[in-house]
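Quality-control log, excerpt.
Job 1 of 2 completed; input and output follow.
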Amino acid sequence: MNRAFYSDSISKFLIQSSNEIIGILNNPANGAFLQTQQQAWHYQINLLKSILKTYDGRIYFEYAIPRMGRRIDVLLLLGSAIFILEFKVGEQEFSTYGMDQVWDYALDLKNFHETTHEQFVVPILIATEAANSFVAATITPQHDRLFKPVKTNAVQLRDVIESALLLTDGNVINLENWENGRYCPTPTIIEAAMALYNDHTVVDISRSDASAINLTQTTEAVSEIIRTSREKSCKSICFVTGVPGAGKTLVGLNIANKHIDKQDNLYSVFLSGNGPLVAILREALARDKVRREKEKGARFKKSTALSEVKMFIQNVHHFRDDCLKDTKPPIEHVALFDEAQRAWNAEQTASFMKRKKNTPDFNQSEPEFLISCLDRHEDWAVIVCLVGGGQEINTGEAGIGEWVESLNRHFPEWHIHISSHLHDSEYGAGNILEQISSRPNVTYNDYLHLSVSMRSFRAENVSLLVKQLLDRDAVNARNTFGSLNERYPIVITRDLAKAKQWLKEKARGSERYGIIVSSQAERLKPHAIDVKTPMDPIHWFLDDKDDVRSSYYLEDVATEFHVQGLELDWACVTWDADFRYSPTGWECKSFCGNRWNNINKVERKQYLKNAYRVLLTRARQGMVIVVPSGDQEDTTRNPAFYDPTFEYLKVIGFSVLD
């Protein structure tokens, strides 16, 4: 696949006229470009023609990075090195944004382009009018052959290239093999949502290795159910299961985006009860829309972008409220419920309706009511339940069993398509599935299960490790960690300051890092962590390093309620005394007044365990776990509350941060 607007050998590039190259770049199929962009291309072409006269290799203009929805200005393959050139034509200063931008391009190729993994990669930021500042002695490749970004002006660009090539001692890159290398990205859910919303396919932004192929297969299986239901005028519900980070939300967003055709009266909607996730995705899509329009020279209000996005992603509770007010069928024939197991049970729903909606006689669970809304259609409808295992973290969450029981009680005509793994213990369906074994139109489908975590592109078994850790299976957890330690570092410490420094040293470019804690972690105040202090997840997840509200500042912390369904590149999990290791089992505590109290309800214990499961599976590239030392003089932070947990983590094999 040709990812560049223009690509050719350097020898042919040198003999082509600038106007001829501009004509190729200006192909209408590539879009419409402002005059300033064409002027920038002229500058880049003329400069590189003067620099590359003595080199062999290949040159690419506007090389696509689909995962990021961006294009690299110029990519050069020279000798044994790949040069990434980001031009800031006419600028005299090097911005932090520009440095992160070129870092991110280099990291993307290094991490996700298979024939770049072992190559030297040299990212260069060129502020064309900056003062001379490049010093050859300051550049050096890191352990993975990726150079730190080099800052230069136009005059010194030749010196940068020559100096870098002196430090690259590998074999000359095989140009054909490099071009044929697979691009196998693992986007964050925010990146994926932006790419899908801008008409990329799931193939563009997902890994293509054999272990992740079923992401596409699952999408196709659900699409087939939608197509068949529409053709046969029947109503269907399907349950898609997956391990943490496997891509359930990505599948849901992809299907919602794919099955919208207003001219053909086909509407679908992605629904989630996860308020922070909905707000963050909407804001990210709106900001991206405004940015793209601005780059085209158009003015576009964010409020307009937000209103468009709301048709695509909705809060499930708002959808429910609209259906309460209007008893007609909803406009959507396809509804995808993210984390469907977190829908409310009848008791929680009735309580809410009485307190907030002045509806004292409401007697349905949320799953039952939501099915009834789609059941209003006279012809066809499809509900897709995206089901996570061990993800229930709040009171009143019904689990997947309530969906099945609702179907059994009131919707005998619905066709049911079930992941073959729904009976697994972590999904909580249990014996309920036996109740529908004799009903017609029940189909089990292996393709409705996502078995491989894609959150961590460095180590797929992180979710297994966390499960073993929380199940107190230290022997197997140690073995699992041993198999992923080199690719996915996990360290432990008693010192939060050391943990913060570790995060900053590990993260490169705009890789996002932050501190995450349990919502019950109420005795971390001596470490300047107060879980009761309000924070805005939109700013925390989306804002840049210069914003004190962002995760980068390591001041505001996020809890399991803020981060569920989202991810960081690097995470600091700070472990309080609410969840303590003991020889007889996990001790679950809640803090009230001036003391820790036992949590006795089995349900609440499971919520707390699941909270730590969410926290420990958020990081894509590695994490540091902080278990405070406590304070002998503080009865609420007795070291005995913390030491056994720290020692248990050491047994698993996590190294102690010096």
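Job 2 of 2 completed; input and output follow.
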Amino acid sequence: MGSLETIPRQTLVNGISLNEDLENGPFYIDGCDTITKLFLQRCKELGERTSHREKDYGIWLSYSWNDFHEHTRLIANGLAALGLQRGDVVSILSEDNKEWVYTDLAVQCMGAISSGVYTTDSAGQLSYLVTDSNSQFLFIENDEQLDKYLTVRDEMTCLKKVIVYDREGLHDYHDDQVMFLDELYDIGRVHLKKNPDLFEQEILRSKPTDIALLVYTSGTTGQPKGAMISQGNIMYSLSVGAITLPAYDTDEQVCFLPLCHILERFISVLSPIASKSTVNFAESPETVFDNVQEVSPHIFTAVPRVWEKIYSRISIMMGDATPFGQFAFKQALAAGAARASCLRDGKPVPLYTALRYRFWDAIVLKNIRRMIGMDRLRRGTTGAAPISPDLLLWYQTIGIDLFEGYGMSETSGIISLNMYGHNKVGTVGRVVPGGKVRIGDGNEIQYKAPNVFEGYWNKPAQTEDSMTTDGWLRTGDVGFLDNEGYLKITGRLKDIIITAGGKNITPAEIENKLKFSPYISDAVVIGDKKKFLSCLIMIDQENVEKFAQDRRVPFGDFASLCATPEVQELIGGVVEKVNEEFARVEQIKAFRLIDVLLTAEDDELTATMKLKRSFVEKKHKALIDTMYG
């Protein structure tokens, strides 16, 4: 929505009009230079086409782009009536649902800033995030999250109002500070009648320099910091995303990762506005596998932990199959591996290999993909944490293209991507068009592009520390560019282990090899200033319990399961096998099992299921000491 004179030269890419020049902004998608303008244009263009689906009482219900527009407009007007100003921050504390997205867009459309809060955050963390961002309004999903707010309400003096989405269990609840979403809609309708043009006027006032999102970092190295993402940052990331791994208006996708994380925000809120795809909201993180089976999406994005879980389920299930079933599965994997090897090397698939794969695909592999809801999958992506290359190869073997990418909150979600025809396993792909990567001191990956954030909210010193003196973002990741321009990440700068013998070791590759086992869900390699490497291991509860039950190993709870000699021997065997792939100095000489089940509510894990290494090492120091006694 800019004059023809101001719009840079455009080119048509995958049905979307984009800048020809991706180094210099402003960045336009179909003539719009902000996501809010593009949202308004899409709603007018698509009308009754389905935008979102959500389950209610077990039935998938569809919601149109008209619904998207109307509910967003009512929330925006309701907030304006309650005193929302341009530049104010609004926080959202909810699981994924259409109301989350309506609120997110409503806030941005009014020129305010949207900030998500993880539902797994404690009351103290909620208080910190709301106060640090100086949020004026807080949206809350239900009575459970309302209880969290009530325990720390006196600490959040900045809030004007708290709005609750779901009335269930709260029908008789009254509080001057709290209102419900249907009440906000009513206020919005009244305000809309008096100000019929306000919503569109505020959208048209939006500029690429406006701060759109506040995305708080996961806090693995201290208190979370709010990364300020501008409208221009978003439009650049969407532009390069449309070129590298495009989505289409016929695509179905499933949303289940926390929407306050930049990865899911990009995939399930921002990108569908550009691509016109349909988003299906999973009922909960626990039901995601069932929901994926029901939807059979064309696009599915997950963190490595989820891809590992799917692999583990299939591996264990095949272990329980009949002898003929196991034989067929091995033959199918061999056929798939032969075909995938040719495709990876860019070689023609020989006729015999192609026919062999076609046979075993029809008999076995296609059924496996259908069973996990990925028979229509065109684009599987993984990010937010390192993933084992062995796992990526396994997915290629069963006929699923899984692309690893790399990005941060500070880069509006994207730095590099593998893509169709350019998918090099073991790397995070090539840097996106218009972006630049260089390797700095200590082999640190440094990045420069138009999607680098505007800085940390109210933290100028930390913002300055995150940039080099000549304007490159310091990612904190260690890696290198290979001779084909693919980026390989070897670890985090702060995670490098320097043994007592002076050997520098990046633990990520060792940990990923361990996590490829269906019996290990996570691992932390220890060894800084130590004589040898050791490891803390979290077992996969479901698979190890089945292992124990099949062998009639007695156990009472998770701790006793971890303590059984049979489980210790099982994990010891995995460690020994992984050690064979590494030099002596990189081999694990001792391990211990963490015998407490961890969830995202625990301080050891981030909401995207990444272990906080430093926290784990401190909390389990006594356990670690037993390996060096």
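Post-run check on job 2. The two ends are 68 Å apart (CA to CA).
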